[in-house]
Amino acid sequence: MNLNSKLAAMDQIYDIYNHFISGQELVCKKGCAHCCSNNVTLTTIEGHKIINQLMSETDTDWKGKIRQATHQAHFRPQITTNQLAHMCARGIEPPEEKQPERLPCPFLSQDQCPLYRVRPFGCRCLVSRHDCGRHGYADINDFTLSVNTVMLQTLEHLDADGCSGNLLDVLKVMSRKDNRQAYQQGKLNCASSGLIANQPLKVLMIPPQHRTRMEPILQSLCDIRF
Ligand code: SF4
Ligand code: SF4
Question: Which residues line ligand 1 (CB under 6 A)?
């Protein structure tokens, strides 16, 4: 699949999620940013979209922000969501993922996200039914967590010849022209770039009690045209 088709399909996945989430009772609002940390993960197709926006902006300091932030401890996933699904389906114990202390996302500016329009799914799916600032944690219902997992699996499948990783690491890789060219040709070497290789979706992680309710969402994902 060429890059433009991938980007178009990704926007449709985001639209399906926006439609789902608009029906939820959430307290998330502009200027609420306790969830904006340096531990967000994403795929290279999402990183490509963000880099395009950053390169079109007058703020030229974004490379410096990424460079500085990657020197601080941040979450580096060892496996992707589809790898986790394969392991669970085969009864294999997944590796323990270490979460370093959360630091604010380096892009956050006065509690606003300058990347809001192109933010990755890892940011879009951070939602809550109560004020995280007051309670110290987000309150997400189980079905929304299942939808989030399905969306993550679908995005990874869409970008199956790409990579995943921490927002900062993916943007650092995708900020290089040679890496973007390699990515567009399906030749980006994830391991040597410090990222993990995406996998096609083989098994969906949907608990039995959510399967019927998930059907319309799965149908919308199957109907995506690009
Ligand atoms: S997830 Fe929590 S911190 Fe983030 S916008 Fe929603 S309420 Fe605010
Ligand atoms: S990219 Fe934007 S939405 Fe995502 S964590 Fe950073 S500031 Fe928050």
Answer: 27-28, 32, 34-35, 126-128, 131-132, 138
Task: Specify the pairing of strand 41-43 against strand 196-197.
Answer: unpaired
Residues 93, 87: contact at Cβ < 8 Å? Answer: yes
**How far apart, in whole angstroms, are the C-alpha atoms of residue 166 and residue 195?**
8
Is pTM, for the whole model, over 0.90? yes
Nearest ligand, measured from the Cα of 28: 1
Model confidence band, residue 49 (pLDDT cutoffs 50, 70, 90): very high
Q: Which pLDDT score, from 0 to 100, does residue 119 have? A: 97
222 contact partners, CB below 8 Å, separation of at least 6: none
DSSP letters of 121-171? HHHHT---SS-HHHHSS----HHHHHHHHHHHHHHHHHTTTSEEEEHHHHH
Residue pair 160/183 in contact (Cβ under 8 Å)? The answer is no
- Of 21, 25, 26, 27, the one to substitute when testing ligand 1's pocket (max ligand atoms within 8 A of C-beta) is 27
Ligand 2: residues within 6 Å at CB? 36, 40, 105, 107-108, 113, 115, 119, 123
Ligand 1 centroid to residue 28 C-alpha, Å: 5
Residue 58 has pLDDT above 70, yes or no: no
pLDDT value, residue 57: 79
Each residue's pLDDT tens digit, 103-136? 999 999 999 999 999 999 999 999 999 999 999 9
Closest alpha carbon to 157 in 75, 224, 67: 224
3-class secondary-structure state, position 197: strand
